Structure formats: structure tokens, C-alpha cells
TrEMBL record:
Region (Disordered): 1-21
Organism: Nocardioides soli
Protein name: Uma2 family endonuclease
Keyword hit for Metal-binding: no
Keywords associated with the record: Endonuclease, Hydrolase, Nuclease
Length: 182
């Protein structure tokens, strides 16, 4: 058996291995040493990302910055994730990479990544100590937010359709899920 070029013959992949991935237009992430490859997002996903980015930028405090993917968040040597959107302290966003953790990681769900985002990535951000995590569903317009309480996520806010979504973490914001997909 011949090992694929650039991959170790056995064992989990690392952040260094991730750096050898080809730039093929797909998203490449590591979750506990396993490679996750995601296709180019569809229009509803990108519309929700764009609209949410604009709304977050309007509400963001001066000490924080909103960033779009791709931006690697190294949670460990074998877990490197790229949330669709993140909010981080400005001083953590120097140079080529983010240093430290975001205060908010946001995933916009897609049919092919829904379970990864809702279960595996959420758990990874929780273990790493990311203060808040949101899941936005453009297909069934909704937003669900969790915040870290001790070492586990608890429900913070949620809304569907034209309901109002309100949270103060990491800054006060009010959204309506329906507006993110128009």
C-alpha cells in the first residue's frame, strides 16, 4: 500500500499536515486528527454569511473584530477549525494567523455539514473554551446560541423565522433569522 503524498503513514493528522493540503477550493479542517473536507457553499449559505457579517460589524465593539472564513483557529495540534464567522479580540488578529481563541464562533449550516457543525465542531469549541457558539440555519431560518458556563455550553438564545434573536454575548445584538436569508 502506498501512502498519499504529504500524509503521515499512520496516526492522526496534525496542523503541519494541514499546511500541505492543496489549494483546491475546498475547506480543509482537522477535528481530532481527522480531515474534514467541505465543498464550496451554496447561495443560501453565502447569503446568510454575508448578511450576518454586515449586522455583526454594525454592532461590534471597538476592541473586537468580526472575521470571515477562511481563517484557521488552532484549538490544538490535531484540531484546526474554520468557522464561517468569528468574533475575536483585535489584538488576537495580528499577522497571518489568529493567536488565541475567538470569543464567538459561528457556523452557518449546510446539508452536508449540519451534524458536523451542530455536534462535533460545537463540542470542539466548547472543550477549547470558546465563550460563545452560534448555529445559523438558512434552510429553516433560525439561530441558536450557546454560551460557556464553566466548562460546558448552555443555551443562551434562539429564534426562528421572524422572531427576535437577542443576546449580549459578545456584545448586544438583535437579529431576525428571516432577514439573514433575504
Amino acid at each position: 500500500m502506498i501512502a498519499a503524498s504529504g500524509f503521515p503513514p499512520s496516526g492522526p493528522l496534525t496542523a503541519a499536515d494541514l499546511g500541505t493540503m492543496p489549494d483546491d477550493g475546498h475547506g480543509h479542517e482537522l477535528l481530532d486528527g481527522s480531515l474534514i473536507v467541505t465543498p464550496v457553499p451554496a447561495v443560501p449559505h453565502q447569503r446568510a454569511v454575508g448578511n450576518l457579517y454586515l449586522r455583526l460589524r454594525e454592532a461590534c465593539s471597538d476592541d473586537l473584530e468580526v472575521m470571515l472564513t477562511p481563517l484557521d483557529i488552532a484549538l490544538s495540534e490535531i484540531t484546526v477549525l474554520q468557522p464561517d464567522l468569528l468574533v475575536a479580540p483585535r489584538d488576537a488578529l495580528e499577522g497571518e494567523q489568529m493567536v488565541g481563541l475567538p470569543v464567538l464562533a459561528i457556523e452557518v449550516l449546510s446539508p452536508g455539514t449540519r451534524l458536523i457543525d451542530l455536534i462535533l465542531k460545537r463540542a470542539a469549541f466548547e472543550r477549547a473554551g470558546v465563550a460563545s457558539y452560534w448555529a445559523v440555519d438558512p434552510d429553516r431560518p433560525s439561530i441558536t446560541a450557546w454560551r460557556l458556563d464553566g466548562d460546558e455550553y448552555v443555551s443562551d438564545a434562539s429564534a426562528k423565522g421572524d422572531e427576535s434573536f437577542r443576546t449580549d454575548a459578545p456584545f448586544p445584538i438583535e437579529l431576525r433569522p428571516e432577514e439573514l436569508v433575504r
